[in-house]
Amino acid sequence: MNDMTPTREQRSAALEGMGCKRKRVEDIRFTQGKGNYVDDVKLPGMLHGDFVRSPHPHARVKRIDDSEALKVPGVLAVITAETLKTVNLAWMPTLAGDVQMVLADGKVLFQNQEVAFVVATDRYAADDGINKVIVEYEPLAPLVDPFKSMDKDAPVLREDLAGKTSGAHGPRKHHNHIFEWTVGDKELTDAAFKKAEVTIKEMISYHRTHPSPLETCQCVCSFDKIKGELTIYGTFQAPHVIRTVVSLIAKLPEQKIHVIAPDIGGGFGNKVGAYPGYICAAVASIVTGKPVKWVEDRIENLTATSFARDYHMTTEIAATKEGKVTGLRVHVLADHGAFDACADPSKWPAGFFNIVTGSYDFPTAHLAVDGVYTNKAPGGVAYRCSFRVTEAAYCIERAMDILAQKLNMDPAELRLKNFIKPEQFPYHSALGWEYDSGDYHTAMRKMMETTGYAALRKEQADKRAAFARGETREIMGLGVSFFTEIVGAGPSKNCDILGIAMFDSCEIRLHPTGAGIARMGTKSQGQGHETTWAQIIATEIGIPADNIMVEEGNTDTAPYGLGTYGSRSTPVAGAAIAMAARKIKAKAQMIAAYRLEVHEDDLEFDIDGFRVKGLPEKFMSMKDICWAAYNSVPPGMEPGLEAVSYYDPPNMTYPFGAYLCVMDIDVDTGVYNVRRFYALDDCGTRINPMIIEGQVHGGLTEAFAIAMGQEIRYDEVGNVVTGSFMDFFMPTAVETPHWETDFTVTPSPHHPIGAKGVGESPNVGGVPAFSNAVNDAFSFLGSTHIQMPHDFWRNWKAAKQLGAVA
Amino acid sequence: MQMNDSQRIPASREQVWAALNDPAVLKQCIPGCQSLDVTAPNEMTATVVFKVGPVKATFSGKVTLSDLDPPNAYRISGEGSGGVAGFAKGGALVRLESQGADVTVLHYDVDAQIGGKLAQLGARLINSTATKLAGEFFKSFADVVSAKAEAG
């Protein structure tokens, strides 16, 4: 070898494979304003549609008069439920097994519900048309409080369900009841509570909020009458699912539907569902024969397309005097709004909320969830979390703090005492999950050592004493949170959407010059898939990541996949990439063996090619193998080098982490200062540490928003009063604290590359850390639980109620 | 939303009562009132331009006088629709208290409700706006009535 021969380290670095802080390739276009979003799609003759929406939360629609609207210059059509009935599309199925009005059919059930769709030559004309549509309403009593949904005299919201005593998830107890879902051993749990030395009980609410991506939901539908083909450009986190749904409900052959999701400006769960806008734009295009664009404005996005959370969780823990937990009992009242349009896998009406035992070894647990209707927007999407996992993590992490307070124990110590031990993995939880791997004690201790936890507690004690002496008006809180997520939905044995198993897919095709393309069933909304997917291939096959183009979002070219949400891309599609790559590698090995004239068993893979064992000089690079694949394959072998993998995961993955929030609150103003936030994440094998750090920063910022103020609030008569960014808290760089990130690595034993997923962990773990910090700050004044969100006003109110402010 | 206040008017109770039942006076005093037409005894239709924060809309609707107790009290109520801007409805219980021959104190007790975009965008402004509008109405009402009393 001469001096120019690269070392193994140099060859490995040149691949920019797994573990490399590779810069995001998609940012080359994003940072130059050259992304291509749905609103950038401009087709010849394109029309624009916009909605007439209901000002009432609950009313009968007596009459819709579009005659004046049709006189507005540029207005071409006004579509109502009556129009949609002619094509049997006035209602559509939801992902949760319910049905939802596309346009108001006789009644409106939430404020800003879609009533009519005005189609015009431009958006301005459409808006002028909307102003001229006369809708006559007969207001009905609104039902806003979910705790009153099942009152005897509660108004009937869903007249279409009259007489239906069961729904998609079993029996209904009341006309506003959707489902009851129970898991766990009730008898055993009740018995544990009976003999418990210590118990706590608290109603912990996780308020309604909204994913609020900066790019709202939108689409362009273009129907080609001659070919009978419908092309839909849309902000879809799951393009293939949209294609199948459209085919099923519009009765169009699936091969004639082309769904294209171009660049997406954030999704966070908001862009999983199917919305009336998509249906109306498609119908309008079929009716007019022209492309029709629909773009939500901010108010519409916040008030009409999928909210998140709205879980009211009555939580009880049984424990010994020493602080060993012996039982968990949770009842959830789930406010689903007017239609059950929750985006969960079919068999999971409350998502994976049964991860609520968290990171702790509960010998027994019981969970019951009641879903109810109210006069609010439908939804219940997983806002930067796996299905209902952030609700579960918040529930258990608040409850553990409340238990610690009752036992007068340090909350970190209580957690260490109850963690599932490393040797217990794979661990079977009392509510039915099999946790793949974890080392909670190591993560927690690393957090405590790095942050100087003991010293912070000492400082807090000193500060409390100073507060009592009247020397300061500031109180200090330490928010400990230790979460276990459940992501990577999921195994076909228990996860499907509309009957389609939740696998995911990858197709890799290598070109003669040592380059290639990977097409995916996933769809990035900012996660950086174009960067990270290529890194997995680089390490697996030995082709530099820069030579791999990643393509997502076109259902004509991509293999069928279930899309990107619930931190499923790396656990499921990431595995599919590795499996497809390994198929290619196996064929490459045969080609190399043939060319090097040895038996393939005599070859070993070495970074970027195959080497004959014991003969280091006999080496064939992957680049050369790619060329050979197209001209000199072994006799009887097909040329080419490509593979597809559809990966059905054997289990979920269970990322975890230890977070600490240090917060000071001025009792006289309620103003808080997040002095420090430390986040240790264990997401198994780390593909790109820079992207992980970015994911953690983003997730923590959203967690901060939710815990400290972000809320979709209704007044007592059903008006949404947080319908714009003036009232809906969207943190900017000004409000956002500094984040400290850290990690441990506990690979997933069943995932081909050991990766677990990270995009949503910081939101799941972050919310309880913030809320626990606020609650911890106030606890010495006598409070046990203060509901989120903890904005300045509510903090001040808490201080006042606790007597800290005159 | 609820509010109550009172306004001292330098006029007799009968003069105030008469003005309270005079559509021309009401039209003059309701902030933003474009038209007010009597359609039946104690019933009127009105068009009012209403602005809360960023939302401005023309509301048309019905105004009704009820619980009439001349010359002591009545209830004035109205509801109107502002199209895409939403709707508003509400009323005021108005009570007159004589404080001598030429002075009357007008007490008002208002409850109002808004819905639609007005409520979504204007929630944080609605109380202050309503207080301001009610104040404006009763202030100009007092001015008009006292001018009439002086002239009369």
Automatic annotation (TrEMBL), chain A:
Enzyme class label: oxidoreductase
E.C. numbers: 1.2.7.4
Keywords assigned: Molybdenum, Oxidoreductase
InterPro entries from the UniProt entry: Ald_Oxase/Xan_DH_a/b, Ald_Oxase/Xan_DH_a/b_sf, Ald_Oxase/xanthine_DH-like, AldOxase/xan_DH_MoCoBD1, AldOxase/xan_DH_MoCoBD2, AldOxase/xan_DH_Mopterin-bd_sf, CO_Mo_DH_lsu
GO molecular function: anaerobic carbon-monoxide dehydrogenase activity
SUPFAM superfamilies: CO dehydrogenase molybdoprotein N-domain-like (SSF54665), Molybdenum cofactor-binding domain (SSF56003)
Top-level taxon of origin: Bacteria
Any Pfam family matching the protein: MoCoBD_2
Domain Aldehyde oxidase/xanthine dehydrogenase a/b hammerhead: 32-141
Parts of the chain that traverse the membrane: none
Gene3D superfamilies reported in the protein's UniProt record: Aldehyde oxidase/xanthine dehydrogenase, a/b hammerhead, Aldehyde oxidase/xanthine dehydrogenase, molybdopterin binding domain
Keyword NADP (UniProt): no
Keyword Oxidoreductase: yes
Coiled coil: none
PANTHER family: ALDEHYDE OXIDASE 1-RELATED, XANTHINE DEHYDROGENASE
Protein name according to UniProt: Carbon-monoxide dehydrogenase large subunit
Automatic annotation (TrEMBL), chain B:
Domain of life: Bacteria
One family name in Pfam for this protein: COXG
Name of this chain's protein: Carbon monoxide dehydrogenase subunit G
Species assigned in the record: Bradyrhizobium campsiandrae
